[in-house]
Amino acid sequence: MPLGTLDRTPPPFFRQGPSALSKLTVCTALALFLMVADTRFGVTQPLRAVIADFLYPVQWLVLQPVNWVRGSAVYFQSLQSASAGAEQMRITMAQQSLKANQVDQLMLENTRLRQLLELRARINASTRAAQILYDAADPFSRKVIIDRGQVHGIVAGSPVIDGYGVLGQVTRVFGAISEVTLITDGDQAIPVLNTRTGVRGVAFGDLSNPVGGMELRFTPADTDVQAGDVLSTSGVDGVYPAGLAVARVDKVERRSESVFARIALSPLAQVRGTMHVMVLQPVGSQIEARPVEPSATSVPAAAPSTPKR
Length: 309
Prior knowledge:
Layout lengths: L19 H22 L3 H73 L9 E9 L7 E4 L12 E3 L4 E8 L4 E5 L6 E6 L5 E7 L6 E5 L12 E4 L11 E9 L8 E6 L8 E5 L29
Antiparallel strand pairs: 1-2, 1-12, 2-5, 3-4, 3-12, 4-5, 6-7, 6-9, 7-8, 8-11, 9-10, 10-11
């Protein structure tokens, strides 16, 4: 063969095939087809399930060290929290035991003093269970409706309590239902007693607080009141029995331009979430009525005698 007829061009380094643009077009079309088919018909779901079953043991083995480390951290943290909680509970139990002993001693002393002074015992009000049916429709008041009324022996003015403290007072009585005005209503006022200092005051509802609050009004700025003080009923109004929990002091503001302090309270009763309440008999109905003083009878004056001549 003549040497001039030989192909002297070097062979291609890679085997030539379709162009890159053609490959991109085919792969793009295939990817779109698979996405649409998987979304509409789930054609790749069996393949994914097989791959997931195959990879699950590998994933489980890889995650075991991570789970061991996390479990150890949680265990030691829980152990530390449990130890701290047990220590705190022992301290709390010791304090409660001391307070219980003091309460028993004070009750014994109170009983003996009452016997010594011949004072009558504390008034025990009768109670009646009730359930809240619904809230009143008035948006400018804080009232609820209970399922007990005049046929059940409910009278206007009866105190209403829940498991935490004073909830309100019965203001209107119907046949089978009654209206209760909550202690957070602006027209509601309760004589209270500071359990720490023994200072009396009057707690009013505060409608400016959207979540339901109270305030202690007409308290001089120099009165010993602190945040955290608990207020209970004083029992001087003839409605609420003494000793019922009412509210806790949240904030005390003493302003130089006012002789009274601004004291914000939070009610202890669940004024927005309770369903079952107790209606008490008003204290005034158990106290003997004040005797009516007899009217002063006018004695006619003796007529002056006329001297004889």
